Amino acid sequence: MNAHEERINGIEAGADDFLSKPVNQQELFSRVKSLLRIKSLQDEVKTQAAQLARWNETLEARVREQVGELERLARLKRFFSPPLAEAIVQGGGEELLKAHRREINVVFIDLRGFTAFTDRAEPEEVMELLQVYHATMGRIVLAHDGTLERFAGDSLMVFFNDPLPIARPAEQAVRMALAMQQAFPPLGREWNKRGYELALGCGIAQGYATLGAIGFEGRWDYAAIGSVTNLAARLCAEAAGGQVLIDRKTMAKVEDLVEASPVGPLNLKGFAQSVAAFTVAGLKPAG
Fold first, then answer.
1. Distance in angstroms (rounded) separating the CA atoms of residues 192 and 209
2. What 3-state DSSP class applies to 108?
3. At 226, is the secondary structure helix, strand, or coil?
4. pLDDT tens, 206-251?
5. What gap in Å lies between CA 104 and CA 172, rounded to an integer?
6. Hey, which CATH number is domain 101-283, 3.40.50.300, 3.10.180.10, 3.90.1150.150, 3.30.70.1230?
7. How many Cβ atoms are within 10 Å of 36's Cβ, its own excluded?
8. Domain boundaries of the chain, sorted by first residue
9. Is 242 left (phi over 0), alpha (psi -120 to 50) or beta?
10. pTM, full prediction
């Protein structure tokens, strides 16, 4: 077998290089240096591949984490304003959704004349009204950082100071209610042209409630439970169209802000004692 055939057989057998006898020492050293350089490059490639694999694992973990945050954010945005939902996610605030007790201001609103409207109107008209009404009121809730508990037909319940405490929740509640009363007349006039008389009533109360997420996997709501929610609902029921009624605790917090006058005491269903109430005409002039 000649030298050429031996070289081919050696390489086919798995050799990285081949020297024929007699071995030239200088050539041997040069080939060894070359093979060491190749080995070093191979090791570097393996190290980089391992590092890249670790980076990929870290990236996948971060992607899963980000997807999880987006899913939590989407769930929270069903209850809260987008900025508040983002603040909860960034702060790991799902703990805030567990049952807890806090003083809040509850705002309850509904439409006067809605029952008569549904008796006379076509279902498509009712849906049209509710869509416009909910959209208009919903924008005002978000603008005032309120927590929307629910839409229930023409009724709307919003509370302030939970799940994150805010400065002057009573003031925010009253400002939102007045903004809603200001925004409703154009809607009312539009439906008045069709022969329907509609107006907005509002009740606001302050007190302690138990709050947290309730429901089951796939359908969660965020709720406030306590007599303060009932009081706000009863005050709303007493309010005439265009009127905002507030309880004594709320009045104590906003008396320097609003023009208000007493309308009580009121005998409200579910309350053994009469309730002092005040009607808010508007904000006091600045200055």
1. 38
2. strand
3. coil
4. 999 999 877 776 666 778 999 999 999 999 999 999 999 999 999 9
5. 11
6. 3.30.70.1230
7. 10
8. 21-69, 101-283
9. left
10. 0.72
